[in-house]
From TrEMBL:
Signal peptide: none annotated. Coiled coil: none annotated. This is DNA-binding transcriptional regulator, LacI/PurR family. GO terms for molecular function: DNA-binding transcription factor activity; transcription cis-regulatory region binding. Keywords: DNA-binding, Transcription, Transcription regulation. Residues 66-94 are annotated as: Disordered. It comes from the Bacteria. Residues 3-58 form the HTH deoR-type domain. Transmembrane segments: none annotated. InterPro entries: ArsR-like_HTH (IPR011991), DeoR_HTH (IPR001034), LacI/GalR-like_sensor (IPR046335), Peripla_BP_I (IPR028082), Tscrpt_reg_HTH_DeoR_CS (IPR018356), WH-like_DNA-bd_sf (IPR036388), WH_DNA-bd_sf (IPR036390). It comes from Arthrobacter alpinus.
Length: 382
């Protein structure tokens, strides 16, 4: 692999994941760790990334992490973005028209695209965006919300750590906020009407339906599902899977779905569980699988190859998330939630609610955006 090709792959990996591990990536692309470390040094000199122990992080992730340490621990940081555009009063940097805080669970997987969407809207609209990371901790989430409010933000974008806002301290903290709040990438159907929230999210029910309809269109009738149990998206993907089969007149059973329960910080136990999943797929005689998320889908395909199951010859596979699905030995067909658009529209919606000078918002909104399907090599006709 040529140097320019390696550099492009490294930057693509960081764009998708926010960070990389030298040993893991070197093994995956077939180069030495020394070669990869030289590549990282060259890219760092160009300002394209920041090296850390054992790997590298994107510039955006490094900024978030650096701010976290400065303000007292992981996720304790506020990343301050100076916007450009509307409101400029001279040749220099203009004063932002509003400050909006944003709290997301992660700066590495899935959410970098949501953050980039919000950043783009902030630049276009002349808003200062302040970012905080909760690391999937509801306690940290509440602390970040309270800190942003204490610092005087004009509005909030929040992605809760869990699937539901109905209970917990996060909802309590948001109900006490006296600024507009937009929930990103989570449903608010079960939130009490007396809490004034708006939302922008990907329609994951529809996303799963799109995947299953694609496989049905290829002639597959025995289609299984595997989802990560801890994922806030799992419930809606399962619902979409069942709806698609029902609408196609195909019988479905609860046993047609399996849940991954082992965390990725236990790699040996996780691989063992996915190997058991492959055994179940073989016994069940499925010809196609939908797997949430990309990381588990790539491990699943690797285990299939070890068992002599050809992808897509013996089994078609569709991943859900499209973060790193294209980077496998077999590039995976994947459902791609509109993450960038979610971030962009969430910030727009929040600004419209801040005051009459910025928009004419009246009724509270719940916006649902449809995912798209990226067709690659892992799905083929039955």
């Amino acid at each position: 692999m040529l140097t320019d090709d390696r550099h492009a792959l490294i930057l693509r990996e960081l764009q998708h994941r926010g960070s990389l591990n030298v040993s893991e990536l070197a093994a995956r692309i077939g180069v030495s760790g020394m070669t990869l470390r030289r590549d990282l040094a060259a890219l760092e000199d160009q300002g394209s990334l920041q090296r850390v122990h054992g790997g590298a992080v994107s510039v955006a992730a490094a900024t978030v992490e650096g701010n976290s340490q400065h303000h007292g621990g992981p996720g304790g940081a506020l990343q301050q973005q100076r916007a450009r555009g509307r409101g400029r009063t001279g040749p220099g940097v203009r004063t932002p028209i509003a400050t909006i805080g944003m709290v997301v669970p992660s700066a590495s997987y899935y959410f970098p695209s949501v953050i980039r969407g919000a950043e783009a809207a902030a630049r276009d609209l002349g808003v200062r965006l302040v970012l905080a990371i909760s690391n999937y901790s509801q306690t940290e989430e509440q602390r970040q919300i309270e800190r942003l409010l204490a610092n005087g933000v004009d509005g909030l974008l929040v992605t809760p750590s869990g699937e539901s806002l109905a209970n917990g301290n996060t909802l309590k903290a948001l109900s006490l906020a006296n600024v507009p709040v937009v929930i990103a990438e989570r449903p608010i159907d079960d939130v009490l009407d007396d809490v004034a929230l708006e939302s922008v999210r990907s329609d994951h029910v529809r996303g799963a339906e799109i995947a299953i309809n694609h496989l049905i269109g290829l002639g597959h009738q025995d289609i299984g599902l595997c989802v990560r149990q801890s994922s806030p998206t799992a419930v809606r993907v399962l619902k979409g899977y069942r709806l698609a089969l029902e609408r196609a007149g195909m019988e479905h059973r609860d046993s047609s779905a399996r849940f991954i329960t082992v965390d990725r910080d236990q790699p040996e136990a996780l691989r063992e569980q996915i190997e058991e999943l492959v055994d179940w797929v073989a016994v069940s005689k499925f010809t196609a699988m939908l797997v949430l998320n990309d990381e588990d889908a790539l491990t699943f395909v690797d285990c299939c190859h070890e068992r002599g199951i050809s992808i897509p010859g013996d089994l078609a596979v569709v991943a859900y998330d499209d973060e790193i699905a294209s980077m496998g030995a077999v590039p995976l067909t994947a459902v791609a939630p509109p993450k960038f658009d979610v971030g962009y529209q969430a910030l727009q919606m929040c600004l419209n609610r801040i005051g009459p000078h910025f928009g004419n918002a009246t009724a509270l909104q719940q916006v649902s955006l449809s995912p798209s399907l990226m067709v690659r090599e892992s799905s083929a006709p039955q």
